[in-house]
Design goal:
This protein has 10 helices and 7 strands. The protein has 269 residues and is α/β, with parallel strands linked by helices. The longest helix is centred in the middle third of the chain and has 21 residues.
């Protein structure tokens, strides 16, 4: 058998949805997909921010990035996003379930509302959005070019975090296992599921946990990175490169895995 390596890492012409795509890791992945020639839909709760990010990414990378705002912690938001996408597209090649929230509180003070918000977004929302988008994923899936679902978990779902984010860690561990569960059921339909477990990246969410109060630009990321074996925090190229690999022909035989993108944090724990 003669191997062909042309376009091994190509996702050109693919249609992708990136939830939580208006900032942080979602925006990094959306930017990478656009740079590689994919058509992107991004979603987030705040419509104005989502629209602004879509416009900026389209202008920066010369591709097509479309905003579909939705609150994916609510079934109404899940159903609305799926319906609006189906009005625009007949297939979906790549779904990146990145939308996520966290909640921090001392154990004795941790509220039920905080627990439910995290689980509803990080686990329930991922499952039901994937369910509602199955017709479009099935329409794209072939043996030669499977559809892809990438769930964005966290190293906090693999090892214990230093923060009082009890529901967050539990939700991400659940998401990693949900990925394996979905892969076991749907690989035979040529829909490939994998998860990425990011470590420290320069995002609003992590900034709030390390004392930066959400000010991404002025957070001391060098200090955060020194706690990593790699000596740095992640870059857009790190997370987008892994997502592109998993979405391309090169990653077609990787199924049901949770891959840490964390600069060695898990390996050193």
């Amino acid at each position: 058998m003669t191997a062909t390596f042309d376009d091994l890492f190509s996702i050109e012409g693919k249609i992708a949805v990136v939830t939580g795509g208006s900032r942080g890791i979602g925006e990094m992945i959306a930017a990478g997909f656009l740079a590689k020639g994919a058509k992107i839909y991004i979603s987030s709760r705040k419509a104005a921010v989502c629209e602004e990010t879509a416009k900026r990414l389209s202008e920066t990378y010369g591709g097509e990035c479309i905003a579909l705002p939705a609150d994916l912690s609510q079934m109404s938001g899940v159903e609305s996003l799926a319906a609006r996408l189906a009005e625009r597209e007949s297939r979906l090649d790549i779904l990146v379930n990145n939308a996520g929230v966290s909640w921090g509180a001392k154990l004795d003070e941790f509220p039920e509302s905080g627990w439910d918000k995290v689980m509803d977004t990080n686990v329930k929302g991922v499952f039901f959005l994937t369910q509602k988008l199955m017709p479009l994923l099935r329409a794209a899936a072939t043996a030669e070019s499977p559809a892809r679902v990438i769930n964005i978990g966290s190293i906090d779902g693999i090892k214990t975090a230093a923060f009082d984010t009890f529901s967050y860690g539990a939700s991400k561990a659940a998401l990693h296992h949900l990925t394996r569960f979905m892969a076991a059921h749907l690989t035979k339909e040529h829909i490939i599921f994998n998860a990425i477990a990011p470590g420290p990246f320069p995002t609003w969410m992590l900034s709030t946990g390390v004392g930066g109060r959400g000010d991404v630009e002025n957070t001391d990321w060098d200090r955060v990175g020194r706690g990593n074996p790699s000596g740095r925090v992640g870059t857009p190229e790190d997370i987008a490169g892994l997502a592109i690999f998993l979405s391309s022909r090169a990653g077609q035989y990787v199924v049901g895995q949770t891959i840490a993108c964390d600069g060695g944090s898990v390996a050193a724990s």
